[in-house]
Amino acid sequence: MKEFSINIIGLSKKAHIFDFKLADSFFEKYGKEVISGGDFDVRIVLDKRETFIEIDFKISGKAHLVCDRSLEPFNFPIEETRKIVFKYGDEAKEVSDEIVIITHDQDSIDIGQFVYEFVALAIPIKKIHPKFQDEPDNEDEQGVQIIYSTSDDNEVKENIDPRWEKLKKLK
């Protein structure tokens, strides 16, 4: 997207600061699978050097989520700080989560996809409304049966049904 693309060819070799505001329209363009919307402030510090570009992301705001338990909408606060290093190389590729290789003739960097991924990774897998946060999570304990085993053979023999005892004698 053009509005989240930073022209790196015209930048001097020093630190540059960019501020962005994200709204629901941002999530409509990048995907609403994880986040249906939100309001975020993004500060990007781009430090251009001779052989690489270092970008620090500071993301703060609230994501609009739906509770998995009650299906009520709620706002989830997010504070994220991330860093990506863009190194110059022969072909463009992503080496790791923090290092990306770009070519020397690349004129801009689209930071929108990175911001979307950082916000999506900050969302918990289980989205619970704040009013349910203090309640114990008993979902895993329902339907659990505990079977005890004793090592004392006398107790076991006393509890055996006499019909089973006769079947054991047939062996």
Overview features:
single chain, alpha+beta, 6-stranded mixed beta sheet, two-stranded antiparallel sheet, 4 helices, elongated
Description:
By secondary structure, the chain is an alpha+beta fold. Helices cover 19% and strands 38% of the residues. The protein has four helices and eight strands. It has helices spanning 24-30, 112-122, 153-158, 162-169, and strands at 5-7, 15-22, 37-48, 52-66, 73-89, 93-94, 99-103, 108-110. The strands form two sheets. The chain has a six-stranded mixed beta sheet. Strands 1-8 form a two-stranded antiparallel sheet. A hairpin with a 6-residue loop joins strand 4 and strand 5 (73-89). The longest helix is centred in the C-terminal third of the chain and has 11 residues, at 112-122. The mean pLDDT is 82.
Global morphology: elongated
The level of helicity is 10-25%
- Which stretches are low in confidence, meaning pLDDT under 50 for 5 or more residues running? none
Cα end-to-end separation:
78 Å
What spatial order of strands do you see in the largest sheet?
Answer: 2-3-4-5-7-6
Give the count of helical stretches: 4
User: What kind of sheet is the major sheet?
Assistant: 6 strands, mixed
Give the amount of beta strand, in percent.
35-45%
Counting helices, strands and paired strands, the structural category is: alpha+beta
Mean pLDDT: 82
**Total DSSP E strands:** 8
Helix/strand order: EEHEEEEEEHHH
Compute the gyration radius: what is it?
Answer: 28 Å
Give a brief rundown of this model.
19% of the residues lie in helices and 38% in strands.
